[in-house]
Amino acid sequence: MRILFITATRLGDAVLSTGILNTLLQQYPHACITVACGPVAAGLFQHMPGLDRVVVMQKRRYDLHWLDLWKDCARTRWDMTVDLRGSGVSFFLRSGRRLIMRGGRRPGRRVDHLGAVMGLSPAPLPTVWFNAADQKIAAAILPPSTPGAPVIALGPTANWNGKIWPTARYLPLWQQLAAAYPHARPAIFYGPGPQEAELARPVLNALPHAIDAGGRFALTETAAMLARCALYVGNDSGLMHLAAAAGTPTLGLFGPSRASEYAPSGPLARWVEAPGPEGHAPIAGLSIERVATAALALLRETQP
């Protein structure tokens, strides 16, 4: 059986789609799956069971990337096409069953909209696939997290400045966390590229004993590192969704982005929102005390 799975360009949306992709793997364990996605998300799928290949869609003017995808896939007879981009490209492919998610924003959790494509309610939780080599790299970077000495991940970056909680607040936040857990160790996570590094640098400078866990790792290595952490606290971002998918207790920080749509989805996922109308609340209105209180509550829930 051959399945074409067309998912997101952005990392966060791609992570959210892994729940239904994992359901397809369970329903069709012998299927060969081709994943089409943007370059940022491509590494997410490299260790997925049943993966035939990843088609990386480079965005082009006039939506010509869809023509590229059609050319790449037109020679194959697909048993099923799952199109989460609402492109309708499957109608121009030789495909059996077609599951197409309509485009446009609408109220409700994004993960539920994705689950509805396959008639799944509740929607399956996102997941992440990493292997022993990823775990070995993670173990070399991060010490084991123990109840007395938890490793706490901080994610100070995002793809939009409006989502970024002021970086100057991470030092007083850490001071409150360390008062409750004196042997805790911070780990700073951020994505590749100079912009992400520049956003993370003030937090790394403020916490010189922190572990630098960003910038140079593959997505699956990052997921393996996140899985070793006792807690993740960070902005609404792809890393936040990756942490939740890895099973890490996750606290998402929301301001002008909508938690009702993009709250983290995981077995131990929580979020706090800045006061004000959803979608328009400045994230600077989210106080250190509120974040610290929620973070400590989640730690106490998960640490013996």
From TrEMBL:
The keyword Glycosyltransferase appears for this protein: yes
Record GO cellular component, one term: cytosol
Any one GO biological process: lipopolysaccharide core region biosynthetic process
Record keywords, A-Z: Glycosyltransferase, Transferase
GO molecular function: ADP-heptose-lipopolysaccharide heptosyltransferase activity
Database matches in Pfam families: Glyco_transf_9
Gene3D superfamilies in the cross-refs: Glycogen Phosphorylase B
Protein name: Heptosyltransferase
UniProt organism field: Acetobacter syzygii
